[in-house]
Amino acid sequence: MKLGQTSIVYFLSRFLASFLGFIATIYFARLLGAEPLGIYYLVIGLVSWLAIAGKIGFSGAVKKRVSEGEEQEEYAIAGMALITAIFVIISVGILLFRPYVDSYIGYPATEFVVLFLFVTLSNAIVNSLLVGFHLVHVNGILSPTRTGGRVILQIGAVVAGLGLTGLFVGYVAGYAVVVLIGLSIALRRFDGFSLPQRRHFRSLFDYAKFSWLGSLQSRMFNYTDVIVLGIFVPSTLIGVYSIAWNVAQFLILFAGAISTTFFPEISELSSKRNTESVTDLVENALSYSGLLLIPGLVGGTIIGERLLRIYGEEFIQGTTILVVLIIANLIMSYQSQILNTLNAIDRPDLAFRANVVFVVGNLFLNVLLIYFYGWFGAAVATALSIAISLVVAHHYLQSIVDYAIPYTEISRQWIAAIVMGVIVYGGVHLENTYAVLGHNVATVILLVGIGASVYFVTLLGLSPRFRTTVDRNLPFNIPLARN
Questions:
Q1: Phi, psi at 48, each rounded to 5°
Q2: 221 CB neighbour count, 10 Å cutoff
Q3: Inter-residue contact 383 to 368 (CB < 8 Å)
Q4: Domain locations in the chain?
């Protein structure tokens, strides 16, 4: 399967999963309100941090070593054994400190924290195996399965009156189903069950001792602000902030699909010393990282308030937060491609240094800016710290790989987004003045549809590179995609 097609399959799968989650979150926000959602996302944030200690970079190490194509079974089994042992140790510690965990969360949820951690670590190792075996598209397809199962179970539990507990139960069950399916698919790639030797564990450790900070960076980008906000602000504001964050994250899906798809390919090419092909992949990855985030930023600035109103009136206060978080995700989309390449070419030490800059800056800025500016400070801290890390990561990668930043292609995306923004702004003004539809949800859906159409048609007209990419990867021909 072509890389573009693999990225599209993975993206569409993740898009479907996120869309299902998006609809479910609207339902839960309207039914339960912001406070229960704040507790729910606080638990997810806490588990995400604990999962860093649970993996310590071993899931990334498994992905890297398996993708190289040598002794795959030994590395897979070694990785699973290491992560299982770490999970047991952390779980015992969580249960011993149950009163403190429940006090921080503001809800008796310690047992669910352990269950969340188990399914999260299990899912991480299964994802690593699937990507390592070059089954990125399969990994992507499993995402809507997990989300769909979670959503159905959560809705059923909430309707049955379980409330917040229903959200917890559905989350665990949704992950468990996908872990079992994914593991069964990955095991079919095993030629046998050769037990790993000491050198396999040592090889995983040598890679993980640097790559673990990449997991920390990812978790900090997603949840540091939520974790610190848990100290300074009430659960209601955490709920509103988390909704804004989820909307912003929806736009980074395609960049994530590119990173996941390109990693095993860059890894294999790097091991074969094919520098020219690695450079080409890096430039392609950077060309399309902002493909959805750039128009998402323009559109979010114009219709962000209407979009958040869908969740309920109390969520409108997060409109400015939403815009800043989209900016943070846009910066992150480029930074993640560069770090992904550093890890893929077996330079996790340099990725480690760039991640140190982010981790230290993110933690310091979050505590400082949240203390002075509240939740707005959290959003700004995230954007600033990831921007600094991007500069450092770019410096490291360019010292190894002679690649050029595709400024021309990125500029064309901005021009297409501005054209889209003018049309969408006119639609908002028309609706505000004459109430043509008179329905907020219908207005948002229509404006998003019109905006997306204008953006992609304009970009097809402006960008020969985009036309060529579309032509190569679509299963059918469209006239505008031809040069």
A1: -60, -35
A2: 23
A3: no
A4: 3-405, 406-483
